């Protein structure tokens, strides 16, 4: 996903999503990271959308309207401009006889799709399956659809998936007669889900890996939302410790400390460490 050439607000860069949308995105700042700790019990999908809403210049409406693939791409871009280009993660071999834990190194630029060739507001598919034929018109799921479905999926995974389908299927016919989404048989629902995934390939990022211990080749799903949230939470925990130490020593408020440049905060923490060593 290349950076677009137009101007962005101060501190932000303009990125082009796979759908072709140009959006201004700023890095995650200290205040964002700390607020993530306050929402630790919320669903990862909901937290990911809320984080993008804070970091997109276009705000919450834009974040919620992103297709799932655009949302995944923007979270990867957010990780890139906040932490760095390379992702280091641990993956376990799926072979029952192995289960070796291995390190995987991922370059974000290699897993981002520049731009989809065919982008539409809605799509149509025809399926000839017994007993009869089906025609379905649908749109791609958005971040808002995903969040609503995730809430229902907490209690019932099937209910969550059906809720997303209800929101995204615009019209369905069986043998030229309109039918409700709930009346579609499971195999047709699966066909629709596959058609959505085919038209929004950035929605799921799969890493092709090979186990160094047993040699098995396998695919592993990279969940950008969960991975980025975990990284930011680890940074936030360290940041809270720094805030605590500086507030105790200098009497500054949390807001004042969080607004400091990270490099200056680090210098004060270093001074505190030096003072403890020499007993000052």
In sequence order, what are the helices and strands, one letter per element?
EEHHHHEEHEEHHEEHEEHHH
Number of separate structural domains: 3
Tell me, briefly, the overall form. Answer: globular
- First CA to last CA: what distance? 51 Å
* Residue share in β-strands: 15-25%
Helix/strand class = alpha+beta
Report the uncertain regions.
1-6
List the total number of helices: 11
Largest sheet: 4 strands, antiparallel
| Overall pLDDT metric | 91
Number of strand elements: 10
Helix content: 40-55%
* Estimated radius of gyration: 23 Å
Widest sheet, order of strands: 5-6-7-8
Explain what you see.
- The protein has three domains: 13-114 and 220-231, no CATH class; 123-199, rbstp2171, CATH 3.30.2220; 241-278, no CATH class.
- By secondary structure, it is α+β, with helices and mostly antiparallel strands.
- The protein contains eleven helices and ten strands.
- Helix 2 (44-55) crosses helix 4 (68-82) and helix 6 packs antiparallel against helix 7.
In short:
The protein is 48% helix and 19% strand.
What attributes characterize this protein structure?
rbstp2171; 4-stranded antiparallel beta sheet; two-stranded antiparallel sheet; 10 strands
Helices and strands, with pairings:
Layout: E1 13-16, E2 22-25, H1 30-38, H2 44-55, H3 60-65, H4 68-82, E3 86-92, E4 101-107, H5 108-111, E5 123-128, E6 133-138, H6 143-153, H7 157-168, E7 169-174, E8 177-178, H8 186-199, E9 205-210, E10 217-222, H9 224-250, H10 254-259, H11 262-278
Antiparallel strand pairs: 1-2, 3-4, 5-6, 6-7, 7-8, 9-10
Helix pairs in contact: 1-9, 2-4, 6-7, 9-11
């Amino acid at each position: 996903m290349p950076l677009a050439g137009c101007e962005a607000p101060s501190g932000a860069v303009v990125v082009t999503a796979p759908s072709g949308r140009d959006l201004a995105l700023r890095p995650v700042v200290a205040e964002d990271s700390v607020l993530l700790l306050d929402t630790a019990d919320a669903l990862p999908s909901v937290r990911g959308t809320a984080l993008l809403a804070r970091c997109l210049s276009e705000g919450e409406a834009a974040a919620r309207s992103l297709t799932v693939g655009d949302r995944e791409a923007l979270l990867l871009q957010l990780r890139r401009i906040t932490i760095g280009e390379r992702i280091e993660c641990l993956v376990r071999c799926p072979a029952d006889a192995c289960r070796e834990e291995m390190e995987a190194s991922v370059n974000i630029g290699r897993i981002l799709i520049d731009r989809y060739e065919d982008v539409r507001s809605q799509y149509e598919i025809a399926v000839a399956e017994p007993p009869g034929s089906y025609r379905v018109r649908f749109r791609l799921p958005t971040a808002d659809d995903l969040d609503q479905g995730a809430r229902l999926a907490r209690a019932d995974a099937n209910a969550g998936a059906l809720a997303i389908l209800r929101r995204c299927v615009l019209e369905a016919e069986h043998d030229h007669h309109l039918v409700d989404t709930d009346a579609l048989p499971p195999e047709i629902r699966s066909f629709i889900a596959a058609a959505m995934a085919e038209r929004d390939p950035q929605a799921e990022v799969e890493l092709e890996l090979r186990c160094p211990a047993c040699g098995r080749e396998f695919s592993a799903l990279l969940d950008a939302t969960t991975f980025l949230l975990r990284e930011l939470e680890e940074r936030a925990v360290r940041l809270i410790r720094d805030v605590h130490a500086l507030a105790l020593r200098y009497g500054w408020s949390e807001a004042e400390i969080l607004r400091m440049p990270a490099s200056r905060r680090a210098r004060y923490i270093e001074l505190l460490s030096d003072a403890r060593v020499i007993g000052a």
